[in-house]
Specification:
2 domains; single chain; four-stranded antiparallel β-sheet; 9 helices; alpha+beta; Outer membrane efflux proteins (OEP)
Length: about 475
């Protein structure tokens, strides 16, 4: 073979192998723990990003309100060109009513049209005109109007901060539910696969017994039907597992086509062991820690400041101003400079009842926030009670289902021996296998309800249980 052709094919082959390896690396499954999932969700979740943008907007509102307390300085300038300037004609002597020597000023003499030498033409203004002005204004006394507005903006910023904290708490719960949902769906697939394996083994035993004359066609037929049912159940739980994983990816806001898996277990870890809990203490912690409660408190304080702002609008205010002005044109030998300062008082007399309406509106907003705060506290208390009861129930069911699984496993072992010896029928064997599968499902569900219930209780009280 030609050496050049051989090198050509060698390079092409190496390049193809590189692409295959790259594709395989891209399709490699990424396994995520719960904490890793939460961190990814914090970076990608759209609800959290929206809350953070609202916080930035609230911060800008604080800076805007603070500007009302500071001096306002403006500068402006203009250039004007007049093609034609205004002209006027006066008499050379006695113009503008000035007396001539020995004359009187009672009456301005009329210019003589016969002698144009007696007339003088004057131009008023200039062709090129420049002007600049620098203004400074500073509120001196306005009954706290601008300061109250600044305080209201700061309180609103703190309220929006609580919205961000609430979004993080809700996100942690959403990720936990999606994570454990994908995990239990995977475990359900494992249980369904075990059921299929057991029924396949049962079918083999039935066919062997039929050949030996120890079983009937009915036993074989019943085992085949049971195998078909188990396989159908496996297909359903496999589809449910795919749906649960897609829901998990959606919460993390990662592409659904990305190949990821959850890494964890439903078994109760030592750090997940529930400490002794008191419902009243949990409710007290929730009302103290929940960002939703703090949000209503900050919002109420901000609304009170807005009421104060509205009330100051019917009162006079005092301000200070100063300006510096310069002007120049081609006729001036020296630039004009004018500086002035003063104080200004504004006294509202009648504004069409706008101030009264603004006060009523602010007070109504305050009342709405007070009512909303009471509703939030009631909702928080209900959420804590519900999460507490569900967690206690899940903990109880774990102990019951652990024992039930052990007993069901022993029942299946005994039933298999009895079926092989012809003591029981396939119906009895099938019943024990179904009981084992159901006990395993109930145990997994109890574990799932416990870990999810623990996450819900922690979200309900606004802190991690120690």
């Amino acid at each position: 073979m030609n050496p050049l052709r051989f090198r050509y094919f060698l390079c092409i082959g190496a390049f193809l192998i590189f692409l295959i390896n790259l594709s395989a690396a891209a399709q490699e499954t990424r396994s995520l723990t719960l904490e890793e999932s939460i961190e990814i969700a914090k970076e990608n979740n759209l609800t959290v990003q929206t809350a953070e943008q609202n916080l930035k907007a609230a911060e800008a509102q604080v800076r805007t309100a603070r500007a009302g307390l500071l001096p306002r300085i403006t500068a402006n300038g203009n250039y004007t060109y007049f093609k034609d300037v205004q002209k006027s004609v006066i008499q050379a002597e006695g113009g503008f009513g000035f007396p001539t020597p020995g004359g009187e000023t009672d009456e301005m003499p009329q210019p003589s049209t016969d002698n144009e030498a007696d007339l003088i033409e004057l131009e008023f203004g200039a062709h090129h005109n420049l002007q600049g002005t620098l203004n400074l204004t500073q509120p001196v006394f306005a009954w706290g109007r601008y300061y109250f507005g600044y305080q209201a903006a700061k309180l609103n910023y703190q309220a929006v901060q609580q919205d961000v904290n609430a979004a993080y708490n809700q996100l942690r719960l959403d990720v936990s539910e999606a994570f454990y949902g994908a995990l239990i769906a995977r475990e359900f697939v494992r249980v369904a696969q075990q059921s299929v394996t057991l029924v396949e083994k049962q079918l083999g035993i039935a066919e062997t017994s039929l050949q030996a004359g120890a079983a009937t066609d009915f036993d074989v037929l019943r085992a085949k039907v049971q195998l078909a049912n188990a396989q159908s159940q496996l297909v359903r739980v496999e589809n449910a597992a795919v749906t649960a994983k897609d829901a998990y990816k959606t919460v993390l806001n990662i592409p659904l086509a990305e190949n990821v898996s959850v890494k964890g277990t439903l078994e109760i870890q030592e750090k997940q062991q529930m400490p002794p809990l008191n419902l009243d203490t949990l409710i007290e912690q929730a009302l103290k820690n929940r960002p939703e409660v703090h949000r209503t408190q900050f919002g109420e304080h901000a609304a009170r400041k807005q009421v104060d702002v509205a009330k100051t609008r019917r009162l006079p205010d005092l301000g200070f101003f100063t300006n510096y002005q310069i002007s120049q044109n081609e006729r001036l030998t020296q630039m004009n400079r004018i500086w002035s300062l003063g104080v200004q008082i504004n006294i509202p007399i009648f504004d069409g009842f706008a101030t009264s309406a603004a006060i009523q509106q602010s007070e109504s907003v305050l009342k709405q926030l007070q009512l909303g705060g009471a509703q939030v506290k009631t909702g928080v208390e209900f959420e804590v009670r519900n999460a507490y009861l569900n967690l206690i129930g899940a903990q109880t069911r774990i102990e019951v289902q652990r024992e039930a699984v052990t007993q069901a496993q022993e029942s299946v072992r005994i039933a298999n021996l009895q079926f092989q010896n012809g003591i029981i029928t396939t119906v009895a064997l099938t019943d024990t296998q179904l009981a084992l599968a159901q006990a395993e499902v109930n145990r997994l569900q109890a574990y799932h309800d416990y870990v999810v219930g623990l996450a819900r209780l922690e979200k309900a009280i606004g802190q991690t249980l120690q």
